[in-house]
Design goal:
The complex is a heterodimer of chains A (175) and B (162). Chain A contains one helix and twelve strands. Chain A has one helix spanning 3-18; strands at 42-47, 49-55, 61-66, 73-77, 82-83, 91-98, 102-106, 110-115, 121-128, 132-134, 142-156, 162-174. In chain A, β3 (61-66) and β4 (73-77) form a beta hairpin. By secondary structure, chain B is mostly beta strands. In chain B, strands 2, 3, 4, 5, 7, 8, 9 and 10 form an eight-stranded antiparallel β-sheet that branches. Chain B has a two-stranded antiparallel sheet with strand order 6-11. Classes of the chains: A mainly beta (175), B mainly beta (162). The interface between A and B is large, with 58 and 24 residues.
């Protein structure tokens, strides 16, 4: 037996001894891959928060409120202010996105309104109809929702008359 | 293995770039700005200075009285409110003066000056505005029908913001 043949036989012998120790030569496991694709969420402003025209009191303080749900305007407080005939509205928003999905609504607690032509400010407390919402329909189709923002601010005899305006940012996000 | 490491690094970089590009879009949230505004007006009011006063009319038997007598003192009506704002001002066209003793009445036809036709409160926004209107009147008396006495009437003027 040549030297080469002896080496080959030795390798074969080792292989023959090792093979019986392998219980199985392969194994499988099934894994699920999943993904949910949803439409991007959109937010559209339909109307601004308009308190209208308020005649300031000669004494005392009054609070002017725009209801966040109905948009109605009311006057409270011990002053003798008056609501002049004018257009008022709550801020109204429409939300679009994937049906059936819930989302959060973020609105700042206050909005600062500055007098046109001046530096005086009025602080409006903002009130939203809900902290969260659910888009209509079910997943796989487009859904819509809506919500509103109202608010209130105080006016006194020392409030400088004029046109006040400001802005606030509203954010909606999928939960 | 060196080749595989290179591929892995390149793939990782591509993923990072993709994420960086996608972040600004963030389709899971949306935001918008809304305006908040309010108009605050000065308190409105009406002040009256003076009254519409007619001159004394002497009743002399068998003397014909002038058919029309204008007031010798006009009423100054001042409307207060938001400067620059237009108001609706209503002055009655006529009022009755009555003799409290006899109950006899006379009709006074009123008249007002030019400010009444263009009721704008003079002044700037954020300050109190004024509108002054002068109101007088004329009295028609038929000859020989005047009853002696003092006659008084009330004129109600209404101002509203438009």
């Amino acid at each position: 037996m040549s030297r080469f043949l002896k080496t080959a036989l030795a390798i074969a012998a080792v292989s023959a001894i090792a093979a019986p120790a392998m219980a199985q030569t392969s194994a499988t496991q099934s894994t699920t891959a999943s993904a949910t694709i949803v439409q991007p969420i959109t937010l559209t402003k339909n109307s601004d928060l308009a308190f209208g025209t308020v005649v300031k009191p000669t004494s005392g303080t009054n609070t002017i409120t725009i209801n966040e749900t109905s948009g109605s305007r009311t006057l409270t407080g011990a002053g003798d202010a008056a609501l002049a005939t004018s257009t008022s509205s709550r801020a109204a928003f429409s939300v679009g996105g994937e049906g059936g999905q819930t989302f959060s609504i973020t609105v700042p607690s206050t909005a600062t309104m500055t007098r046109s032509g001046g530096s005086e400010t009025l602080t409006a407390n903002l009130v939203k109809t809900a902290a969260s919402g659910t888009l209509s329909g079910s997943i796989g189709s487009a859904g819509t929702a809506s919500f509103g923002v109202g608010g209130n601010f105080d006016v006194s005899s020392t409030t400088v008359s004029g046109a006040y305006s400001g802005s606030f940012n509203t954010v909606v996000a999928y939960n | 293995m060196a080749y595989l490491r290179t591929l892995s690094v390149v793939a990782g970089s591509a993923l990072a770039l993709a994420c960086a590009a996608a972040l600004p879009a963030r389709a899971e949230s949306a935001s918008t700005d809304a305006a908040a505004h309010a108009d605050v007006s000065e308190r409105g009011g009406i002040q009256t200075t003076g009254q519409v006063i007619f001159q004394d009319i002497a009743v002399v038997p068998n003397v014909t009285i002038a058919p029309s007598i204008d007031s010798t003192s006009n009423s100054q009506i001042v409307v207060l409110g938001q400067g620059g704002d237009a108001v609706s001002l209503a002055v009655p066209d006529a009022i009755d003066m009555i003799n409290s003793n006899s109950g006899r009445t006379y009709l006074v036809v009123t008249n007002a000056d030019g400010s009444y036709a263009l009721p704008i409160l003079q002044g700037t926004l954020s300050s109190e505005g004024l509108l002054s209107v002068t109101v007088g009147g004329s009295l028609q008396i038929a000859a020989g029908t005047l009853e002696p006495g003092q006659y008084r009437g009330v004129m109600i003027v209404v101002a509203n913001y438009n």
